[in-house]
Amino acid sequence: MTPPEPSSHGAPNGRENAIPQSPHNGPVGGTAAAPGSRQWAKAWRNVLVFGTALAAAIAVVGATIGWLAAGMPGVWGALIGAAMAAVFLGITALTMTIGRNMSTLGLAGVLMGGFFVKLILFMAAGKLLAGNPDIHGLTLFFTLVAAVIGTAVTDAVIIHKTRIPYVDA
User: What are the boundaries of the region Disordered (predicted)?
Assistant: First the structure.
């Protein structure tokens, strides 16, 4: 088996971003990437982009409703709720990125660690914000619930629509 002939651009098969291949063990200097790793990276990038956009939209809508319902404390409640959801979304994407090439047990451990980080952050935020007269609690609660449900649906739709091969071609 011989390596592919370089094209006029110097990359195998004319692909600019191609990884140099060894005829024996995949990419030169190591093992091949996990099947579909580019698709996973694209999927989680889309989760972050669309999830953040959704959290921002919920912040705007929540702040508007919060302003109408409770004035400035409602605005602060909505902004804090949407920000918390965006942080939790980022933690989820980070844990999936870290664990995507791990064994099932390793991935479960990383996900559980991420869950505990989110739980501790949520409890700390609740403790810090409890009884604060500058924040409308109901607005914060409903904004957080809407953002968490919305980002969960966004995650599910994006991952469901992503085509991830079992083996690389």
Answer: 1-34
**Interatomic CA distance for residues 137 and 38, integer angstroms:** 41
Write the pLDDT tens digit of every residue in 84-136. 999 998 998 888 888 888 888 998 999 999 999 999 999 999 999 998 999 99
Q: Which tokens in the block code for residue 153?
A: 């649906």
Q: What confidence tens digit (pLDDT) does each residue in 53-86 have?
A: 999 999 999 999 999 999 999 999 999 999 999 9
Q: Which amino acid is at 71?
A: G
Contact 48, 93 (CB under 8 A): yes
Q: Which two tokens stand for residue 85?
A: 């959801």
Contact of 12 with 4, CB cutoff 8 Å: yes
Place of tokens 């739709």: 157
Closest Cα to residue 89, out of 62, 66, 58, 64?
Answer: 58
Q: Where are the alpha helices (DSSP H) in 16-103?
A: 37-70, 72-99
Specify the pTM.
Answer: 0.71
